Amino acid sequence: MVIKHLPPQEMEEPRAHFCDENPAQLHEDDFEELFRCWDLLLATGKFNILVNGLGSKVEELNSFVDIRLKDYPLVTVNGFMRSASARQVLDNIKEGFKMKCSSGGSTLEYAKRVAEELKTRKQDLVVLVHNIDGAALRDSTQQRVLALLASCETVRMIASVDHVNAPIMWDDSLLSQFKWASFNMTTRKPYVEELMHSDVRLLDGDTPGDEGAHTLASMNAMWASLTQNAQNIFCYLMRLVCKKDEKAVPMIELFEAAREDFLVSSMPVLKQQLVEFVDHNIITRKTNNQGDEDVVVTANIALLKQFLESKGCKLSSSDDEESDEDDA
């Protein structure tokens, strides 16, 4: 499939949209006009789309690609995720198009081979990068690889930035490769998905490892997506953690506590309820030395206590409180 190239005279109107500095929130009609403009720009093969502005832009960019570019092969990059990398993008392209080029050597050398094969095949491709300024993609190597892809004649790149200093990532050479047409896309939507996967450290910033990867804001975003049952099960887990003063809790012990309160009916149901917490690096499941399975809390305990107490979850059971009173 070949993207139609438009004559220069049809480009006059879209040029007026470049670098729009109007910070006003965009509405549905504005997006429709914006999307028509992007259609024209991408069709020329001379521009890629870069959006900025306050608020999450994930939903709008996904909508544009799903509706306007649904006939083209797509690679999506979630730059706000800690696991994001340019090499992962190259691997997806190579696998998707069943390329035979080698993936060895440096990432930049790998990118050159992929770009050359795309050019030889005249293969159209859309690359959507949410948060191209994300922490995992900010270094020069990642940006050079993405710029190389963006410079390919058959590649159309749509990307978003949120950091105020994002433009300093690119020198003149990179800018000439990216071929950005910049647009303001102020949505004022909460950064729900970005926060759930980000590595922002607003609290416990000096905590090493995975513990520092969570904040009250990211926990709130995750909590809002959970069922009441899952929330209650996590409260039970944290009560056991506090009672034992250990991060590891036997899975069977958590199951018995949850079943007693009619939260789960079987072990598979419990494990399914825990998937969301595993995905967000709050807990992990491990086999102990006795061969039994434990649920291990990997997030910062103090932060979890603070968060759950703000949600009204009592981390000490009534039995524990009565026992403390008897001892007194």
TrEMBL record:
Main subcellular localisation: nucleus
Stretches assigned to the Origin recognition complex subunit 2 RecA-like domain: 26-183
GO cellular component: nuclear origin of replication recognition complex
A Pfam family annotated for this UniProt entry: WHD_ORC2
GO biological process: DNA replication
Keywords for the protein's UniProt record, in alphabetical order: DNA replication, Nucleus
Gene Ontology molecular function: DNA replication origin binding
Cell compartments where the protein resides: Nucleus
UniProt domain Origin recognition complex subunit 2 winged-helix: residue ranges: 244-297
Domain of life: Eukaryota
Family membership noted in the UniProt record: Belongs to the ORC2 family.
Function in brief: Component of the origin recognition complex (ORC) that binds origins of replication. DNA-binding is ATP-dependent. ORC is required to assemble the pre-replication complex necessary to initiate DNA replication.
Name of the featured protein: Origin recognition complex subunit 2
